[in-house]
Amino acid sequence: MPVAFVGHGAPSLALDAEKGAELSAWAMQLPRRPRAVLVVSAHWEDAPVTLSSTRNGTPLVYDFYGFPEALYQVRHDAPAAPELASEVTKRLAAWEPRTSDRGLDHGAWTVLTHLDRGAELPTLQLSMPHSASLPQLLALGRALSPLRDEDVWILGSGNITHNLRRLDRHGAGAPVAWAAEFDAWTAQALSSGDLDALVDPKRAPGWALAHPTPDHYRPLLVAAGAAGDDVTKVRFPIVGFEFGSLSRRSVEFG
């Protein structure tokens, strides 16, 4: 299976038919149907490594406020993935993973409502340890890479630029310079398979403004690690910006 990183943007993505159609089209282009989905979201940093609920019917996490009521009514009742949880636990034995009763957060379900419209794919979410460095997150992804051969679709969900204080809610047209520069730098590093650059982004143009906190960048490192030898086989199914500075760039490895 390929590995993906999805620029999830605002939670309202779940209700956005136009942006959702791009995600659905991407899923339709997969070489085969995934057996299960493993998601790493910017919105769950917990140590030690933790797995989401493996119980069917676990409620979603609506970890946002101030949005239309319709968004709080969105459901994504995908089957739980206890078998995948067992496999992940074995692969990550060195990380001493634990389980929880937590449901999928909006970094996961807002994209999956379009990538898996029928909520048919068994789905598991994995936390990122907040204490892990970027090289360690790359190593975490590498440990998960063999799951690709078992038809598991590994998804990172974040944003290549993410500064909520700099959003222009009414913005249209070209993005601001610092966002465009960091987005372009990341695309170049990905296209050339430059992992050394990706794990040391503080020297990149625009980094300080693109990521006041690195949480939305970190899932990209897990996805790049999970790509394994396919890290140089990169395409960008979705590009562009919203709100003047929030990159929508999404990545497929493999």
TrEMBL record:
It comes from the Bacteria. It comes from Pendulispora rubella. InterPro entries: Extradiol_dOase_DODA (IPR014436), Xdiol_dOase_suB (IPR004183). Gene3D superfamilies: LigB-like. Residues 22-236 form the Extradiol ring-cleavage dioxygenase class III enzyme subunit B domain. This is Dioxygenase. The keyword Metal-binding applies. Belongs to the DODA-type extradiol aromatic ring-opening dioxygenase family. One of its GO terms (molecular function) is dioxygenase activity. Pfam families: LigB. CDD domains: 45_DOPA_Dioxygenase. Its cofactor is Zn(2+). The keyword Chaperone does not apply. Keywords: Dioxygenase, Metal-binding, Oxidoreductase, Zinc.
